[in-house]
Known about the structure:
The chain has 154 residues and is α+β, with helices and mostly antiparallel strands. It contains three helices and five strands.
Amino acid sequence: xxxxxxxxxxxxxxxxxxxxxxxxxxxxxxxxxxxxxxxxxxxxxxxxxxxxxxxxxxxxxxxxxxxxxxxxxxxxxxxxxxxxxxxxxxxxxxxxxxxxxxxxxxxxxxxxxxxxxxxxxxxxxxxxxxxxxxxxxxxxxxxxxxxxxxxxxx
Length: 154
């Protein structure tokens, strides 16, 4: 097991299987030293644990936990093309989408779930730039979707 996966185990987490694509795309692709993931939903065992809009059917705290799951799924996607998570030199960018009730403005706090997980798992290599975007609806009525870009060590 890699050092990153050892760290996940210390946190009580297991790297999940890669979530299969819902349409015509790949979960992750590599271009040179970079890996780009597709948007990752908070799937657990092939299902969304909750659906709906944040600030309505889903609480911000629930959504933050879901963003954490999205980041874990994104790491699985990275591993699928990089071979080993220890090859991550740094997380460059995180983009998160939050299906939001019309008056919900806490998207950055929701996306902290993903950012904090990456920091806990990767330390300084997990520090990244980020965008948190509120949207009307996401695939399968998911409350959150997260994509990441990582740079691999040579």
